[in-house]
Amino acid sequence: MKIQSLFILALGGLLAGCASETPTITYHAPLTSPGGKFSVLPPAVQNSVRAQVGSAEIETISKETSGDSRIYIFHFKNKEVFPPLYVASDGSVLTPDLQVAVGATQDTIEASTAHVSNGIKFDALPVNVVNTVRSHAPTAEVDSVQKITAGSDTFYDVFFKDPQHHPRLLVSEDGRVVQ
To answer: Other CB atoms closer than 10 Å to residue 156's CB: what's the count?
Structure first.
């Protein structure tokens, strides 16, 4: 009986020791992930990476400086299929020795109507213009955008990379397509 009592008492003590509270963890630095780092890169860099590797899983992203330009180096989880990718801040894809392999897309197109501002970035357009372009050509890739000012009116001439399937759009600042 004494042995049974001692056994039960020891078992109870052992179980009581296992029922302690779990410690709380305090974080002192921001948590980062390759996806979080990718989302803050320049749009031209993001577009080039998507064009080259699609949705390949990124393992790490590092930055280097060469002269006065910034170079982004992407390492992928599947190293056998996706070697490191070097991308300049303008979106140019580079070789490992930092020579241009694929140039950045052309941001400007010659024009001679009214006052034209070349090289407007798509993400810098007014919301109404962006919504109109997306509704008229949801799958089209924008090649370049020109801002045209005629008097007090402002228009955006949007050119697509595949003009045969997606002809250019002239959109007013309020989002109306102009013929």
So the answer is: 25
| Nearest-angstrom CA–CA distance, 77 and 103 | 25
Strands (E), the chain: 58-66, 69-76, 85-88, 93-94, 100-102, 115-117, 142-150, 153-160, 169-172, 177-178
- Residue pLDDT, tens place only, 58-69: 999 999 987 778
Q: Count the neighbouring beta carbons within 10 Å of the beta carbon of residue 84.
A: 13
- Domain ranges, ordered by start, for the chain: 34-102, 115-178
Could you give the CA distance from residue 91 to residue 71 in angstroms, rounded to a whole number?
10
CATH number of 115-178: 3.10.450.360
* pTM check: above 0.85: no
The pLDDT of 152-156, averaged and rounded, is 85
What residue spans of 109-170 are helical by DSSP H? 127-136
- Residue 84 has a pLDDT of 95
Tokens coding 121: 């970035």
Length of the chain (residues): 179
Q: What are phi and psi of 117, to 5 degrees?
A: -105, 115
